[in-house]
Design a protein that fits this description.
The complex is a heterodimer. Chain A is an all-alpha fold. Chain A has a single domain, classed as Orthogonal Bundle (MetI-like fold). In chain A, α3 runs antiparallel to α8. Chain B is an all-alpha fold. Chain B has a domain of about 180 residues: MetI-like fold (Orthogonal Bundle). Helices cover about 80% and strands about 0% of the residues of chain B. Chain B contains 13 helices and no strands. In chain B, α10 packs across α11. Chain B is flat and about 85 Å long. Classes of the chains: A mainly alpha, B mainly alpha. Chains A and B meet through α5, α8, α10 and α11 of A and α1, α6, α7, α8 and α10 of B.
Chain lengths: ~290, ~325
């Protein structure tokens, strides 16, 4: 299924800056600022116990109430922004460099190396991502480091597939042939001819992978296998305050809503970007 | 077509075999061995020895792999490392909860998705279509635990329409209404997770067909847009739609793990997560294999359906 093959409808091309794009940029910009400056502005430390009242309602203690240990939900939310987004960015950068480099190598090397790399990739993609992560973590343990590497490698299989396909398409074009007959090196061709022509789809893929990393990491943290308490991470915060729902506390809802708004924001931007290229974000997201 | 089908099914078998080897090999990645990792630093020589004895680590790897495959096939998976219960008994006790959750979700989500996708396609580029498009994009983006927590917060905590916690242990013998009441929120959560993608793909599949010449012909002869879509476009869009449905059923495998954790349903997903935390590797391997076989199976069905439904492959020139 190639997402880029469908022609964009006329309305998509006419609208340059749609309201949904603006909403997406505002949301993502907001969370970026929170991740950068939030911890400095937070009224309390992430592990400070500010009240002896569990699940104090919003307004009574701090801005958003207290969590199951009596910590300030608002402050933890600010710290969590940095933790969750920082981890997701790290994982995305790792998976992206790994996927693009290996994908390009596969595309420009001979049939044997390409075949071998693609088969290994296929094998990894035959697992449901979360199940593969669970299996690896049961064997290697559940430290933060292992989670980061595991998620990055699982994620890179998708980047590998895309960048290999993109590089394959471009490496058979005339201008690459010309470069080859000029006697340019493989490195020069990759960096100067193939890479610039794959930048747009790769940029969209970066957004998709970033969303995927946020969802994956916070899901693992939510299951108790990712970031460990008392560190503030949005997934961890949902997990530890889940019981509070029974007492009518919204402490679990806030971090869940934070994750949701951030991923929706990123996807609104990616969706706009892909529509301009004639694709559909939903196709990419399920992989 | 038959050759294509056979080749696809053989590929499915090969993939399952490779997956089984990788799941088995995961434990061999460890420096030292499983027993060392599970028992930790405080392990005595004696406890290590008995653990190795139990997992038969003294035998070469390929022998153990074959034995493991044999045990998987016969269902005699041995005892768990966390407690001394039989793994197959534990899986048996919890599998029904998972299967029921996934099956009921599929029963609701699939017709709903096709209907919404058709509406979006019939009213393409209208405000209804825009609304469905934005709505589905949002539901694709948000994590399952957000939908789940939000539903509990609104329906159970604020409005008090539903029980926030259900006793899933007694459900196996409960009557149908009781089951529905207890599972309503988990099913709704899982439905939202898979509905959006199926809806969008149904719309895309129908609209793709809409650009073919015979559709133009139908429009020119004066058929209404609804009739053109239902009578002319839909039959030809069945292949991609069925494909997407099967892929989403495969996705349910991942979805149940998180949804079971939100609602604390004692299913295979929660059992697997607990086993990962206790590093009960034999149990993780067994459930992992089960999930992967289901996943590979649905992907296989998706491709087989696509091949069967494609008239060009059915009647090759």
């Amino acid at each position: 299924m190639s997402a880029a093959s469908r022609a964009p409808s006329e309305t998509d091309l006419k609208t340059r800056f749609t309201p949904s794009l603006i909403i997406g940029v505002v949301i993502v910009g907001f969370w970026l600022l929170v991740a950068l400056f939030g911890p400095a502005l937070a009224p309390h430390l992430e592990s400070d116990i500010v009240t002896d009242m569990s699940y104090a309602p919003a307004g009574e203690v701090g801005l958003l109430g207290s969590d199951y240990l009596g910590r300030d939900v608002f402050s933890r939310l600010l710290y969590g922004a940095r933790m969750t987004m920082g981890l997701a960015l790290l994982v995305t950068l790792l998976s992206f460099s790994l996927g693009v480099i290996l994908g390009f190598i596969a595309a420009i090397s001979g049939r044997w190396i390409d075949g071998l790399m693609s088969r290994i990739n296929d094998a990894l993609m035959a697992f449901p991502s979360i199940i593969l992560a669970l299996i690896v973590m049961s064997a290697l343990g559940t430290s933060l480091m292992i989670m980061i590497v595991t998620v990055a490698i699982i994620d890179s299989t998708r980047v590998f597939r895309l960048s290999r396909a993109l590089a394959m398409d471009i490496s058979v074009m005339d201008f690459v042939d010309v470069a080859r007959s000029r006697g340019e090196s493989l490195w020069w061709i990759t960096v100067r001819e193939i890479l610039p022509n794959t930048l747009a789809p790769l940029a969209a893929e970066f957004g998709i992978r970033f969303t995927f990393a946020i969802l994956f990491i916070s899901a693992l943290s939510f299951l108790g296998l990712g970031v460990q308490p008392p560190a503030a991470d949005w997934g961890v915060m949902v997990k530890e305050n889940l019981q509070g729902l029974l007492f009518g506390s919204a402490a679990a809802l806030m971090p869940a809503a934070a994750v949701a708004s951030l991923t929706v924001g990123v996807n609104l931007i990616v969706d706009w970007f892909l529509r301009r290229m004639g694709g559909d974000v939903s196709q990419e997201l399920m992989n | 077509m038959v050759r294509l089908l056979i080749r696809r099914i053989l590929l499915g078998i090969v993939v399952t075999w490779v997956v089984s080897m990788m799941i088995f090999a995961a434990t061999e990645l460890l420096p030292g061995d499983v027993c060392h990792a599970v028992l930790g630093q405080g392990a005595t020589e004696k406890s290590l020895e008995s653990c190795r004895e139990r997992l038969q680590l003294n035998q070469p790897m390929h022998t153990r792999y074959l034995q493991w495959l044999g045990r998987l096939a016969t269902g005699e998976l041995g005892t768990s490392l966390a407690n001394d219960l039989q793994i197959s008994d534990q899986i048996g006790a919890r599998a029904w909860n998972t299967v029921r959750l996934a099956a009921l979700t599929a029963l609701i989500a699939v017709p709903l998705a096709v209907l919404l996708g058709l509406i979006a396609a019939i009213r393409a580029d209208s405000s209804v279509d825009r609304g469905i498009s934005i709505g589905t994009l949002c539901f694709i983006s948000v994590p399952e635990f957000f939908t789940g927590v939000l539903l509990v917060y609104i329906l159970a905590v604020q409005l008090r329409w539903m029980p926030a916690v259900a006793n899933y242990r007694d459900l196996t013998r409960g009557d149908f209404l009781e089951v529905i009441e207890a599972l309503a929120l988990p099913i709704a959560t899982l439905t939202f997770a898979v509905l959006a993608h199926m809806t969008r793909m149904t719309r895309t599949a129908v609209l793709n067909v809409m650009s073919s010449p015979y559709i133009e012909q139908a429009v020119l002869k004066g058929a209404s847009r609804t009739r053109v879509i239902i009578r002319h476009a839909l039959p030809n869009a069945v292949a991609p739609i069925v494909n997407v449905i099967a892929l989403n059923l495969a996705y349910l495998v991942s979805g149940v793990v998180v949804v079971e954790a939100i609602f604390r349903i004692p299913g295979l997903g929660t059992l697997m997560v607990e086993s990962v935390i206790y590093r009960d590797i034999p149990t993780v391997q067994a459930i992992g294999m089960l999930f992967c076989v289901t996943y590979v199976g649905f992907n296989l069905i998706a491709d087989v359906m696509a091949i069967i439904a494609n008239p060009r492959l059915r009647h090759p020139r």
